[in-house]
Write a structure and sequence with these properties.
By secondary structure, the protein is mostly helical. It contains 21 helices and no strands. It starts with a helix and ends with a helix. It is found in: Cell inner membrane.
Length: 437
C-alpha cells in the first residue's frame, strides 16, 4: 500500500472519530495506536510510542502554556475586567456606535489578559449586549463586534494557542508572539473603521448616545488607576520578550507574578478565587498537554507511513506558484474550521503543511499568523463556529441563531481581507520579529 493511501486512511479515520464527537486526545490516541499495530506490530513500537509521549510533554518550551493560562485566570477571577471596561468607556463619549467601539477596544485589551476566546466573548456579551439591545443597536452593531473582538484572544499576545502552534511547527515562540502584535491591532482597527463608517452611512444601526459630554479629567483618572497597571502586566510579558530581556517561559512567569500582585492590590482576589484560578489552570493546561501528548505519537506515525514525503514530492511536481499553494492551504483550514476544533485542525494539517512550506521556502512565522487568523475566522463561521453558540447562550431570549449568523458575516469578510493583505505584504508580520533583540 502506498504512503498516500495509508495517509488517507489515517486522516479519514481521525476525521470520522472527531465528527462523531470523540474527544480530540482520545481520537488521536485511537488512530495512532491502531496505526502502530497495523504498520509496526505490537511490543517495542508501542513502548517507543509511550516513551516519545513522556519526552514530548516534559518539554520546557510548553511551560508558557500553563503560565499564560494562570495569568489570565488570576486577572479574570479578580474582577479587574469590569473596572477596566468602565475606564475604557469613558474615552468614547458620544461617538456614534460607542458601545460597538467599546466592545472592540475592550475585547482587544482583555485578549492580552485572558487568551480565551470563549471567555472573552461570553464576558463582553453579558456586560454589553443588554445595554446595546435596550438602546436599539442593530444585530450587526451589537452581536457582530462582540463575536469578532472576542476572537482576538487567539491572536493578541500572550496567546496560548500561538505557543501551542509554535511548539508543533518548531518555530520560535517569542518571534510568533511578537509577530502577532501588528496583525491583531490591524484587525481591531479594521473592525473599528467598519463600525464608524457603517454608523456614519446609516445612523439607525447604532442610535447616537445621549450621555454627558466627554470628561477628560475623569477619563485620565480611570486610565491611570485601571488601564495603566494592566499595560504594565502586558509589557511584563510581551515587552521583555521583544527587548530580549527574557525568554517566553521567563516572561510568562513574570506575567503571573505581576498579575498576582495586581489582583491583590485591587482587593479582588480572595482565597476561594485563588483556588478557582489554580483549578481552572490545571483543567485547561491538562487538556492541552493531553492533546499534545497524543499528537506527538500521531506525527511520528505520519512520518513512518511515508505519506507526507510522497505528498510533498507530488506537490513539487505541480506548477503551483507559492502564493497559490498557500492560498489552497488557507482554504483547507477554513473548510475544516466549519466543523472541527482549532487544536484538532492544527494537529491534522501542520504535519503536512510544514514540509510544504519548507519546499517553497516560505517564512514559518508569516504563515503561522495567517493560519491563526484563519482559525479565528473558523470560530465565527456558520454553522458550527463556537463563538456563535456562545453568543446564543448570552443573547436575550428570542434571539435567533440566523440573526447571529448574519451579524458575524461582515467581520468574517474583514478577517479574509486582512489575511489577503498579509499574504501580499509579509512585512506586516515580519517587521517586529526582525528588530527583536
Amino acid at each position: 500500500m502506498s504512503g498516500i493511501a495509508i495517509l488517507s486512511l489515517i486522516f479519514g479515520g481521525l476525521v470520522g472519530l472527531l465528527v462523531i464527537g470523540m474527544p480530540i486526545a482520545f481520537a488521536f490516541a485511537t488512530v495512532t495506536i491502531v496505526s502502530i499495530i497495523f504498520l509496526q506490530g505490537w511490543g517495542a513500537p508501542l513502548q517507543s510510542f509511550v516513551l516519545s509521549i513522556d519526552s514530548g510533554v516534559t518539554n520546557f518550551t510548553l511551560l508558557p502554556i500553563a503560565l499564560f493560562v494562570l495569568m489570565g485566570e488570576l486577572l479574570w477571577q479578580s474582577n479587574i475586567a469590569n473596572k477596566a471596561l468602565s475606564a475604557i468607556d469613558k474615552w468614547f463619549g458620544r461617538v456614534p456606535g460607542r458601545l460597538s467601539l467599546l466592545s472592540v477596544a475592550s475585547g482587544t485589551a482583555f485578549s492580552a489578559l485572558s487568551g480565551s476566546t470563549l471567555a472573552n466573548t461570553a464576558m463582553l456579551g453579558k456586560m454589553l449586549l443588554p445595554e446595546m439591545k435596550r438602546k436599539g443597536y442593530a444585530d450587526g452593531m451589537s452581536m457582530g463586534p462582540i463575536i469578532a473582538s472576542g476572537g482576538l484572544a487567539m491572536l493578541v499576545p500572550p496567546s496560548t494557542l500561538a505557543v501551542f502552534y509554535a511548539t508543533i511547527a518548531h518555530i520560535s515562540i517569542g518571534a510568533l508572539l511578537i509577530a502577532l502584535i501588528l496583525p491583531g491591532l490591524l484587525l481591531a482597527c479594521c473592525y473599528g473603521a467598519f463600525i464608524v463608517i457603517s454608523c456614519w452611512l446609516n445612523p439607525a444601526l447604532a442610535p447616537r448616545e445621549e450621555s454627558s459630554d466627554f470628561n477628560l479629567k475623569e477619563a485620565l483618572r480611570e486610565l491611570v488607576i485601571y488601564i495603566l497597571p494592566l499595560s504594565v502586566v502586558v509589557f511584563s510579558v510581551v515587552g521583555v520578550i521583544f527587548m530580549g530581556i527574557a525568554t517566553p517561559t521567563e516572561a510568562a512567569a513574570l506575567g503571573c507574578v505581576s498579575s498576582l500582585i495586581m489582583a491583590f492590590c485591587y482587593g479582588g482576589l480572595s482565597t476561594r478565587k485563588l483556588i478557582d484560578a489554580g483549578m481552572g489552570t490545571v483543567r485547561i493546561t491538562g487538556m492541552m498537554l493531553l492533546i499534545m501528548a497524543m499528537a506527538i505519537g500521531f506525527s511520528q506515525i505520519l512520518a513512518y507511513s511515508g505519506g507526507g514525503r510522497e505528498l510533498v514530492g507530488f506537490v513539487s511536481t505541480l506548477s503551483l506558484q507559492p502564493l497559490m499553494l498557500i492560498g489552497l492551504m488557507m482554504l483547507v483550514v477554513l473548510v475544516l474550521g466549519c466543523f472541527m476544533e482549532q487544536i484538532a485542525i492544527m494537529l491534522i494539517t501542520l504535519p503536512i503543511f510544514v514540509p510544504l512550506l519548507k519546499l517553497i521556502d516560505a517564512d514559518g512565522v508569516w504563515f503561522a499568523v495567517m493560519m491563526l487568523i484563519n482559525l479565528e475566522m473558523s470560530l465565527m463561521t456558520p454553522p458550527f463556529g463556537m463563538l456563535l453558540f456562545v453568543m446564543k447562550g448570552v443573547a436575550p431570549d428570542g434571539t435567533s441563531i440566523g440573526s447571529i449568523y448574519r451579524a458575524s458575516l461582515p467581520y468574517l469578510a474583514i478577517n479574509g481581507l486582512v489575511i489577503a493583505l498579509i499574504l501580499f505584504n509579509p512585512w506586516i508580520v515580519t517587521i517586529l520579529p526582525s528588530i527583536m533583540k
